[in-house]
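Bug #77: duplicate submission created two jobs. Keeping one. Sequence:
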Amino acid sequence: MAVTGNGNRDASGPGPLAGVRVVELAGIGPGPFAAMLLADLGADVVRVDRPGGGGLAVDPAYDITNRGKRSVLVDLKSADGPARVLDLVERADVLVEGFRPGVAERLGVGPAECHARNPKLVYGRMTGWGQGGPLAETAGHDIAYIAVTGALGMIGKAGEPPAVPANLVGDYAGGSLYLVIGVLAALHLARATGSGQVVDAAIVDGTAHLTAMIHGMMAAGGWQDRRGANLLDGGCPFYGTYETSDGQYMAVGALEQQFYDTFTELLGIGDRAPARKDVARWGELREAVAARFRTRTREEWTAVFEGTDACVAPVLSLREAPDHPHLAARGTFTEYAGIVQPAPAPRFSATPTRVTSEPALPGADTESVAADWNVPALLPKEA
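Kept job's structure:
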């Protein structure tokens, strides 16, 4: 493991965004993850939690998406709630919110109110359906958003229901990462021109954007619009997963000829593997590959392919991944305050990043934020 933290909280962490101030209006899913990424990169992220708020159905001390942040409690439905948030906004560079369209406006903290106080503010909006369109005000979750974009329909075996990829494809890839890209681009412009803007990050837009290459392949006749029939969706026998003798799995990605040759040789079928380009014989090839993998354990096959260009790797569980030799050597995972978690990514040569604090507990940082941001209205009124 890499760094082990001591629980001390920094107002602004190391990294290229040190000095950038972010207000996050508390929500769930892609909004908190995007704000965590900004905090990982060094931004001073203040999460505005509501009294008795929501969040994950776990102890907030384990909600890693709130690491590196500070939290204050503000009831936006109270008489002075919006004014307290706007006081923060006046001193911020970025605001992130994940309400349904129109909710922030009704609460008095929409773009108009925020930009009236701070014209340079980048106002990041994270939703599933976007700020406009027939479904904009409809409830939804990751699975629905990736369903209508065609992404979910691509995932899984032929003849079986689509496989659900947790909430990684929609919430985080199509949502959080696109929000962060948009926020950083708008922040760059705001610093150059003095004018902020609204970033409308919709999970449906981002997820659709992720399928760009596939649409090109389909237009060129190189992709069939069905599951399990293509080069990268498990339809190809040398790009997929195979069960080992101990009920574990190995992942194979031997697409190029030279990698395929190494793969079949080490697997032990080099002298009898059907032609890789003969799609009509892919079923025969898959059976041959599967039969060989079933003869040894995952550990044994890992030893066979380790360090080669066969493009084969063991399929590890979440608990196993941090101990993989390569990931351990790179410090891909870290342990902070007793929680094993992914380390910040990507990496920077001049402004390295690190986890700076445990997850922010609701309202725990009111005094420090009030002092650092010069917003005394955050403090409880004396009786």
